[in-house]
Amino acid sequence: MGTLHLVRHGQASFGADDYDQLSARGMEQAVRLGQFWRDRGLRFDAVLTGTLRRHAQTLQGIAEGLGGVPEALALPGLNEYDSHALIEAIHPDPLPKPDTPELYRHHFRLLCDALAQWMGGTISPRGMPSWDGFSDGVRSALEHVRRHHAGQQVLLVSSGGPISTAVGQVLGTAPEVTIALNMRIRNSAVTEFSISPKRLMLQTFNTLPHLNELAHQDWITHA
């Protein structure tokens, strides 16, 4: 039986004008994950990613640490939702940059509320697909893995939204549980599904085995 390794991108640039860019720490997290897998002799048969810059940069770091990966299949269906469009749909007034703990918490409270309304079909954020359309993109990627890569080791690099949606689809969770899972996925965290021709099954969620050593404890980030 094969394994699908779903990796959330490394730390990006939260609060900056362009979030879609790994920080220096984010690249270190990705390289470290690749090194961890290299030391354990893991090699991948196939790679899937979203098409965002932070996905490509994370894959680049993993490949550097691992010593190479197969050419990636880039799928827009693995891209993250637009958090700014979601928040704007329920709070159209401009918000200050979330550069204090309270503003940070306020940002994510609004995001969770907006996600719930989007998933429930009560808002249609500008420039975004419906929740069903977003979910279908994730489901299509998982079906591709199940149909074509049973028995293989597969790497999938994406974001918290698609990964939590994938877990929700495999486990059949309620929307509020999917949102809660989304809010807990850490940068460069690994979630694993076993792959068989009939289905995917959850093995692990949101693990950081590559950062378990004391020297890397301050490398653990969430945004």
Automatic annotation (TrEMBL):
Highest taxon, organism lineage = Bacteria
Q: Does the keyword Membrane apply?
A: no
The UniProt keywords, alphabetically, are: Hydrolase
Protein known as: Histidine phosphatase family protein
Q: Which organism is it from?
A: Acidovorax lacteus
